[in-house]
């Protein structure tokens, strides 16, 4: 009688100390667990071998990307139900080192017994190779060199502009949108992205003839909006060849080649300041803690006295021990290699240490949850086309990371903030209005 699901459910309950809150269906068509919940589908025994050789998040990620694991039903509900058991085992577990966890597993008779049971269910076999979508780390060496950053950016962004068109929609903006009313007001994702770009322009107080530098310009939406609506001369920089080609075509199609320049260039290579304003929207997450002081100092040097910086950046919650912080393995291997998040307080401090006067911090994390859910809906609505344009594994990576990220923003595990800072001159004349929060013009 097929019983793989029952054995897996019993094993999970033994290891986790609680029954699985979702149903399991195994490769032998057996099922176990509560009815009327999402179903975790273990399509192949190979999923278990992945967990045996890489226990935890990386093994689960590889099984998901390879299609060995799947979810039937509401993916958000499944992730929410599983999060408390698999990914959030409590503060002490989160701070425990991998070496300590491995040593504990070797000494714990119950865990050794569970491993033997899992081997019996999984069957013999060598560790399956990682899915081809996993970052291969060809760029060995120190973090955040010019070369390594460029290759890391290429891993995420050079997967096809047609694919991103499906996910992002006509706005081609890959950062948090901004709903000025409520979602129930009927605003589209494109409306909310246009509102975000305009909010950035207003915070920067852009005026005709000014020079704007957009760091990490993506597909050119910010520089196009600023040039078209505010009359600035804009330079957008990106490390992605595909993004640059797409953005240049958009600039040409809009008839703005005399106002907008798109460069494949690192922020450390920009030498043609000063600029009146700088926008950095969803780029600072790639900078890394080791380079953040350099990033802040470079942007400060590129601004004229009185110039403004708008730094739009995802933030994590502070750790009791900041030295113990590490990037999630799934995100590091499949989504944003070498990316790092920092608490918003640390970001503000480093901008101030570089010489900026921070004038406003606006937290908009709920807006990102709404944005991500719209992107997931776009991907799911065009699933077959997305798979054709990239690969089944790549589409699965994007669906999982965006859905999980939406929940993280909703549950306040991560946030996103717009930090407005000024290169205030020695005279102290910041050029800011007395009531800076009135951004509506």
UniProtKB/TrEMBL annotation:
Q: Which part of the chain is the Polyketide synthase-like methyltransferase domain?
A: 163-407
Q: What is its EC number?
A: 2.1.1.-
Q: SUPFAM superfamilies per the record?
A: S-adenosyl-L-methionine-dependent methyltransferases
One of the Pfam families matching this protein, by short name: CMAS
Enzyme class comes to transferase
Which keywords does this chain's UniProt record carry?
A: Lipid metabolism, Methyltransferase, S-adenosyl-L-methionine, Transferase
What are the protein's GO molecular function terms? methyltransferase activity
Keyword Methyltransferase assigned to the entry: answer is yes
Instruction: Give me any GO biological process, just one.
Output: methylation
* Family that this chain belongs to: Belongs to the CFA/CMAS family.
Question: What is the official name of this protein in its record?
Answer: Class I SAM-dependent methyltransferase
Source organism of the structure: Streptomyces milbemycinicus
Q: What is the lineage of its organism?
A: Bacteria, Bacillati, Actinomycetota, Actinomycetes, Kitasatosporales
């Amino acid at each position: 009688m097929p019983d793989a699901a029952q054995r897996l459910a019993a094993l999970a309950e033994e290891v986790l100390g609680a029954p699985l809150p979702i149903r399991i269906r195994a490769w032998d068509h057996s099922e176990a667990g509560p009815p009327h919940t999402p179903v975790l589908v273990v399509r192949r025994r190979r999923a278990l071998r992945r967990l045996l050789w890489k226990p935890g998040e990386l093994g689960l990620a590889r099984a998901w990307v390879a299609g060995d694991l799947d979810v039937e039903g509401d993916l958000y509900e499944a992730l929410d139900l599983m999060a408390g058991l698999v990914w959030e085992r409590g503060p002490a577990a989160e701070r425990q080192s991998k070496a300590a966890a491995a040593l504990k597993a070797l000494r714990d008779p119950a865990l050794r017994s569970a491993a033997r049971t899992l081997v019996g269910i999984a069957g013999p076999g060598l560790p399956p190779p990682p899915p081809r979508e996993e970052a291969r780390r060809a760029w060995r060496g120190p973090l955040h060199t010019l070369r390594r950053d460029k290759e890391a950016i290429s891993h995420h962004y050079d997967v096809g502009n047609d694919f991103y068109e499906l996910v992002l929609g006509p706005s081609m903006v890959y950062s948090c949108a901004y709903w000025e009313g409520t979602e129930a007001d009927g605003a589209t994702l494109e409306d909310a992205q246009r509102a975000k770009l305009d909010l950035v322009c207003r915070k920067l107080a852009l005026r005709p003839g000014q020079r704007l530098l957009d760091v990490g310009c993506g597909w050119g939406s910010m520089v196009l909006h600023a040039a078209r609506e505010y009359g600035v001369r804009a330079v957008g920089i990106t490390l992605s060849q595909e993004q640059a080609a797409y953005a240049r075509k958009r600039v040409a199609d809009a008839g703005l080649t005399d106002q907008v320049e798109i460069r494949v260039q690192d922020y450390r290579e920009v030498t043609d300041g000063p600029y009146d304003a700088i926008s950095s929207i969803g780029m600072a997450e790639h900078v890394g803690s080791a380079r953040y002081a350099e990033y802040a100092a470079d942007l400060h040097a590129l601004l004229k006295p009185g110039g403004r910086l708008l730094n739009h950046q995802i933030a994590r919650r502070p750790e009791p021990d900041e030295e113990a912080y590490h990037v999630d393995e799934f995100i590091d291997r499949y989504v944003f290699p070498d990316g790092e998040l920092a608490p918003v307080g640390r970001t503000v401090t480093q901008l101030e240490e570089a010489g900026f006067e921070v004038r406003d911090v606006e937290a908009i994390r709920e807006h990102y949850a709404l944005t991500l859910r719209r992107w997931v809906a776009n991907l799911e609505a065009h699933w077959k086309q997305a798979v054709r344009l990239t690969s089944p594994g790549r589409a699965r990576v994007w669906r999982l990371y965006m859905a999980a990220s939406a929940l993280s923003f909703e549950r306040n595990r991560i946030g996103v903030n717009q930090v407005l800072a000024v290169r205030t001159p020695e005279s102290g004349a910041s050029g800011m209005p007395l009531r800076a929060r009135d951004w509506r013009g």
